[in-house]
Amino acid sequence: MSAAQAGAAVQAGTAPALGLPALTDEDRARSRDRERVYDARIRRRPWWLLWLLIGPGILAMLGENDGPSMISYAATGAQYGIGFFVPFIAVTFAMAIVCQEMCMRVGAVTHRGYGELVLQRYGRLWGWFGAGDLLFTNLVTLIAEFVAIRVGLAYFHIGSAVAAALGLVMVTFALSGGRYWRWERIVLGLAVFNGLFLLAAVLSKPDWGAVGSAFVSFSPLPHGGLNTLLLLLASTIGATVTPWMIFFQQSASADKGMTPADIRHGRWDTIAGGVMAALFGIGALIAGAALASHGGASIQGLAGAGFPGALKEVAGGPVATLFALGLIEAGAVAVLTICASTAYAAGECVGATHSFNSTPRKAATFHAANVGVALIAAAVILIPGVPLLSIALNANVLATVLLPVTLIFMLMLANDRELLGRWANRRSTNVIGVAIVAFVSVCGAAYGIDSFLQTIHAIPGS
Amino acid sequence: MSDAPLIEYLEPDQLVADTSIPVPRARLGRGARIGLWALRVFVVAVSAMVIYTFFAQLR
User: Fold this and answer.
1) Is pLDDT above 50 for A4?
2) Is B37 exposed, middle or buried (0-12, 13-18, 19+ CB in 10 A)?
3) What are phi and psi of A382, to 5 degrees?
4) pTM (2 decimals)?
5) Cross-chain residue pair A259–B14, CB shorter than 8 Å
6) Local structure of A20: helix, strand or coil
7) Of A27, A405, A456, which is closest to B39 when you measure between CB atoms?
8) Measured distance CA(A351)–CA(A345) in Å, rounded
9) Which residues contact A43 (CB under 8 A, 6 or more apart)?
10) ipTM metric
């Protein structure tokens, strides 16, 4: 049979000799995972079923509690205290839950990733734009993740080369085995340690009464002008809702083999991920707030490379050690999930096989993008004199101002009745979704415009 | 091993054979088309600002 005839047989969905649809290795691996889900359902084992179906939601949420985000939360706590930001982090993760639920639902119903659906439904321009935007921002974010690992390791007197090697070894190790299930469980096992930030917060002995009252009052508001507040809002949103999460969760839900029957569990997975991520992010904020009355205002973003060291002086060795270990974990999990989202997007846009269930030979683009993007980011942090801080901050600005594009297409897909049928958004979901997109768009655009106006000195710097 | 038992656990539209067939292009109304053009303008404008900001900060 020629390649063209074989392709035609696959297109027709039948293997002539057997009279069965032609199965690929990817199908076979996925069907073994689905067999266990089916078995758990008919044997009525709800907890086992939940265990089998969790993954993409928790990984997207905890992956976004990445190194730069945790340093940003801690720096915000050190500079402004916990007042406004404890409840605001909770609100932004609630927004993330709404967005991620839509991606999960679209992935489970269509069995296709975000990138390929945008490309096929709305044209090559938007498909390639989304993938290009994702590739650029992911690459720069990955550089920041390697920096975060380096910051964590530096506390234990370990150098940059080990940080670069550690990230690359983990990406390669998680990829080996050629199974989505194995990759997902390895990353989930690592992601659990994001809870170290919460432990660090508890050991820093915060005023729990103040934390409770901040939840109710959203105050005190951070000092500074409107520009400062706007930048803080946008950077907190940018640390919670990002394009890579949307690409990742939809593609991972499809790769995992989720179906409409699993949507209820997918929602629990997304909510659990959002709640954990909010708690751990608030943990980092509270731990950082220990520095608020000890010169914390001088520590900003990734410039706070000495964060664990500074914490040691104020909150003690255990808190600093937990924070440093948390940074290594946060960076590592984000490296794995962001590389995965890049690989999914690359495979989807060029129309190549894009699954962890495929071998490197059959999914060369997917595996090459997964390892390649990590390799480039790791190499960059080893170059002396690269303006890492400027790159990371501007990537964050660009990711935030372009986020509305990703969210708008996500809303359009979630409303596409031709694709989703009865699983399309309800009116109430749309009201909340449109409000979120409008809020993020205004904050993101204001953030970008504000940075620009400050650069051309049209307004004073904040 | 025969594929017959395995295929029972997958939905027909979940097979690689099915997902490799592109979905048709969406039919967009006038409002949606205008909205997407507005989005293009937004993207070009803010991207230009951010890229300028980046290079200005590098100097």
Assistant:
1) no
2) exposed
3) -90, -10
4) 0.90
5) yes
6) strand
7) A405
8) 10
9) none
10) 0.89
